[in-house]
Design goal:
The protein is built from 9 helices and 17 strands. It is of the alpha+beta class and 405 residues long. This is 4-(cytidine 5'-diphospho)-2-C-methyl-D-erythritol kinase.
Length: 405
């Protein structure tokens, strides 16, 4: 994995100042390189050269150019850590897994629970947008080490990956600790369950490293202690979820996996707590969720079945999100079979085409939106989700951050 080469133009002085900029859009590979290589490529050894201006008298210094190449290779770091523990004959010493996100094809809120949560009924479906997580057994027996390619992601036990690993050790007595690198593609605050997927993926990984101390059913049951959406990812990819979301009923894929879709997420996120706070149960849709499930099974996706009871309160929290959905609907001209919000927002999903409407490109208001095409995804029994051969996502890149020790 190689950071982009950054170059800076330096005024002629001795010694020249150093500016290091990096844009680590990592590309996975299996080649071995040094963990950190710093090479200085100087043109004419910091010499100053001058050129005459058109007046013929004034001499103007030309900038000397210095290039800085920084190569950081998390793959090699993972491999070295794995090599240190391989001699212990662990079932697995390193593992790379795809961590996909989900959309809610419909989401009904059916009541308020005594514990303060809400009962829901929803068709969850995994989609092909996702993160990649690399795990390696660590020689450490006291702490996991997490790094990521994005800023702002917590790297301690506030992160659901670390919570999942702690939960697995608590439930099984395993003493495995890990070095983890999260290559984040799914935006946060999107209603796509990216963090929940990361947690489920970490539980699956920990179980592989320990030689399958737990059954998949046990992993699913334990995962509800982390979050309501986490158990869904232990389905086969399509499930009717009830309760807080933790009651998961596998269904045969009611939808063709090759149906294209586009995801449009503005920079603003919706607070799930704020959305539920604004929810008025007496104003939710009254259609039976099982009726919606049957309609989708028989006739596929259409605008009238993609009901999300959290849309009105989310639009109250973020009025610009309502305007975005309305503009997508108005501009679609039959391009999409349905346009709806996923989860508690703030992603708007257009089913039926991978292309966003033209105004998203033309209007400055949407210049910073996250865009991604996707399709539905499932997994085979006893296997984790596989990353599609090609995935296209834009609008999501940020600096490398992490703790490498």
């Amino acid at each position: 994995m190689t950071m982009a080469i950054a170059s800076s133009r330096l005024l002629c002085q001795s010694p020249p100042p150093t500016f290091l900029h990096h844009s680590p859009n990592f590309v996975g590979n299996n080649s071995s390189s040094s963990s950190l290589r710093l090479s200085w490529l100087r043109s004419q050894s910091h010499r100053c050269s001058f050129s005459h201006s058109k007046s013929g008298n004034q001499r103007t210094p030309k900038f000397a150019r210095k290039q800085v190449e920084i190569v950081y290779d998390p793959d090699e770091r993972i491999n070295k850590l794995a090599d240190e523990v391989e001699e212990k004959a662990a079932p697995v010493s390193r593992l790379t897994l795809f961590s996909p996100c989900k959309i809610n094809v419909f989401l009904r809120i059916t009541g308020k629970r005594e514990d303060g949560f809400h009962d829901l009924a929803s068709l969850f479906h995994v989609i092909s947008l996702g993160d990649v997580i690399k795990f390696s057994l660590s020689p450490s027996k006291t702490k996991d080490r997490l790094s990521t390619n994005v800023s702002g992601v917590p790297l301690d036990d506030r992160n659901l990956i670390i919570k999942a690993l702690n939960l697995y050790r608590k439930k099984t007595g395993s003493n495995n600790f890990f070095w983890i690198h999260l290559d984040k593609k799914v935006p946060t605050g999107a209603g796509l369950g990216g963090g929940s997927s990361n947690a489920a993926t970490a539980l699956w990984a920990a179980n592989q490293f320990s030689g399958l101390l737990a059954t998949e059913k046990e992993l699913q049951e334990w995962s509800s202690e982390i979050g309501s959406d986490v158990p869904f990812f232990f389905s086969q990819g399509a499930a009717y979820c009830t309760g807080r979301g933790e009651v998961v009923q596998n269904i045969s894929p009611a939808l063709p996996l090759d149906i294209p879709m586009v995801l449009i997420k503005p920079q603003q996120a919706c607070s799930t707590a704020e959305v539920y706070k604004c929810l008025q149960l007496d104003k939710t849709n009254k259609v039976d969720p099982l009726t919606l499930l049957e309609r989708i099974s028989r006739h596929g996706i259409s605008q009238d079945v993609c009901i999300n009871d959290l849309e009105p309160p989310a639009f109250d929290v973020l009025p610009s999100l309502k305007r975005l959905k309305q503009r997508v609907l108005a501009a679609s001209r039959g391009q999409y079979d349905a346009v709806f919000m996923s989860g508690s927002g703030s992603t708007i999903v257009g089913i039926g085409s991978p292309d966003p409407p033209q105004f998203v490109y033309d209007d400055d208001e949407y210049k910073d939106v996250f865009l991604s095409e996707a399709n539905f995804l499932t997994r085979e029994e006893n296997n984790w989700y596989r990353e599609p051969a090609s995935r296209t996502a834009s609008g999501s890149s940020s600096e490398f951050s992490g703790s490498i020790e």
